[in-house]
Write a structure and sequence with these properties.
Low-confidence stretches: 95-132, 137-142, 252-258
Shape: globular
CATH topology: Heme Oxygenase, Chain A
Number of strands: 0
InterPro entries: Haem_Oase-like_multi-hlx
Structural class: mainly alpha
Strand content: under 5%
Helix content: 55-70%
Distance between the termini: 46 Å
Radius of gyration: 19 Å
CATH class: Mainly Alpha
Mean pLDDT: 80
Largest sheet: none
Protein name: Heme oxygenase
Order of helices and strands: HHHHHHHHHHHH
CATH superfamily: Heme oxygenase-like
Number of domains: 1
Number of helices: 12
C-alpha cells in the first residue's frame, strides 16, 4: 500500500497551488498589504468550508467509531466561533478598516484572464463584498451545499477533510503575526484558532497511519480514495472562491480583466 501522506502531498499539489492562486486566497502573496474586502471574503469562504468539513467528520464518526480519536483533533466549535468573532469585529470596526492599507490590491496570480485582478478602493466596493459575505454566511446554505462533491465514503471524506483542514493551519501563525504587525487593528481570532489546530498535525499523521491497515482490510484502494477526496475538498474551496467572486462582481465589485 502506498504511503498515504506522501501520496497526498504529491497528488494534491496541483490543486493546492491552484487554491493559493485563486482569489481571495491569492491576497496572501502580498505580504505587506491588507485588503479588508478580500479578508472578509477569505473568512466567509473558510467558514463555509469548516462547517461542511465538520459535518462530514461528524457523519463519519457516527458510522465508524475508530475515527473518534482523529475527529477529536480538530476543534470545529472553537474555529467556527473564532471566524464569527472576526466577521463581527470587521463589521463593527468598519470605520477603522474602511480603506485598503497601502496601494490598491491587484491580484496578478490568477490563471484565468477574466479574474486576473481585483481592485478594492471604495466603500461601495467593500459594501458589495459585505453583501456577498452575508450570502455565504447566511443560514440558507443550500446553494453552497450544491457545490459539495460526491465523496467515495464517509471515512475517506473525513480523513481527507481533516488533512486539508490541518494542512491549511500550517501557515496560520505566520499570517496572524503578519496581520498583527499592520498599523490597523485587524481581528485574527480565526488564525489564532488555526494555529492551535496546527499542533495536532503530528498526532493526526500518527493516528491515521495506525488506523490505515485496519481500514484497508475493507478497501484495497483506500489510499487512492482518500487522495481523490482530498482533491475534491480542495476543488470545493476553489469553487467557493469563484462563486464568491462571481456574486460580488454582480453586486458592483470592480474586477478588472487583463
Amino acid at each position: 500500500m502506498r504511503n498515504l501522506f506522501n501520496a497526498l502531498k504529491q497528488d494534491t499539489q496541483a490543486n493546492h497551488t491552484a487554491l493559493e492562486n485563486t482569489f481571495p486566497f491569492s491576497i496572501y502573496h502580498q505580504k505587506h498589504l491588507f485588503d479588508k474586502a478580500a479578508y472578509c471574503a477569505v473568512l466567509a469562504i473558510m467558514k463555509e468550508f469548516h462547517q461542511s468539513t465538520a459535518g462530514a467528520v461528524k457523519q463519519a464518526e457516527d458510522t465508524e467509531a475508530k475515527l473518534t480519536q482523529i475527529a477529536a483533533l480538530i476543534d470545529s466549535n472553537a474555529v467556527l466561533t473564532a471566524i464569527s468573532k472576526d466577521i463581527h469585529a470587521l463589521d463593527a470596526n468598519n470605520t477603522i478598516l474602511n480603506e485598503t492599507h497601502g496601494p490598491s490590491y491587484r491580484d496578478t496570480h490568477q490563471t484565468k484572464p477574466d479574474s486576473s485582478r481585483g481592485t478594492f478602493a471604495t466603500d461601495k466596493e467593500t459594501n458589495s463584498v459585505k453583501s456577498g459575505l452575508g450570502e455565504l454566511t447566511s443560514k440558507d446554505t443550500h446553494a453552497h451545499s450544491n457545490l459539495l462533491p460526491t465523496f467515495h465514503s464517509p471515512t475517506t471524506s473525513a480523513i481527507a477533510a481533516i488533512y486539508v483542514w490541518l494542512g491549511s493551519s500550517m501557515g496560520a501563525n505566520i499570517i496572524s503575526r503578519r496581520l498583527n504587525a499592520m498599523e490597523q487593528t485587524i481581528p485574527t481570532h480565526y488564525y489564532q484558532a488555526m494555529s492551535e489546530c496546527a499542533k495536532s498535525w503530528v498526532s493526526f499523521k500518527q493516528c491515521v497511519d495506525a488506523l490505515l491497515p485496519e481500514l484497508a482490510l475493507n478497501n484495497e484502494n483506500l489510499v487512492d480514495n482518500i487522495v481523490r477526496d482530498a482533491n475534491a475538498w480542495f476543488e470545493y474551496l476553489i469553487k467557493l472562491g469563484k462563486q464568491f467572486q462571481a456574486t460580488s462582481t454582480s453586486k458592483d465589485m470592480v474586477v478588472n480583466s487583463l
